Amino acid sequence: MATTDVTASTLEQTITDNDIVLIDFWAEWCGPCKRFAPIYEKASEEYTDIVFAKVDTEAEQELAAQAGITAIPTLMAFREGVLVFSQAGALPGPQLEKLIEQVKGLDMDEVRTKVAEAQAQQG
């Protein structure tokens, strides 16, 4: 599966309809984004059970602002609708693969418990 372009109108459904979703926030003028793109594309072909989404921050400025994007590229990972990773900067191929394996290996019951505890403390 190749990468999928996501917009403000398709983002939420993409995250809720799929088990694991990676989102690359990028822009055409961004050098590191262009260097990361083939790494991300290659991973999308290897891990066909994961949705590899891309958000063009120039075309989707409001969505990028809502997501708190302050630097690009920024990679976010969602598992079962929960944000489990968010980091600015292009990852080399081996690091991206390691991240994917970590996201796949998460105990989501444990993650949900920690999220609930954190929300209760902020209460």
Automatic annotation (TrEMBL):
It comes from the Bacteria. PROSITE patterns: THIOREDOXIN_1, THIOREDOXIN_2. The keyword Disulfide bond applies. Belongs to the thioredoxin family. It holds the Pfam family Thioredoxin. CDD domains: TRX_family (cd02947). The keyword Disulfide bond applies. NCBIfam families: thioredoxin (TIGR01068). This is Thioredoxin. Gene3D superfamilies: Glutaredoxin. Keywords: Disulfide bond. It comes from Georgenia wutianyii. Residues 1-105 form the Thioredoxin domain.
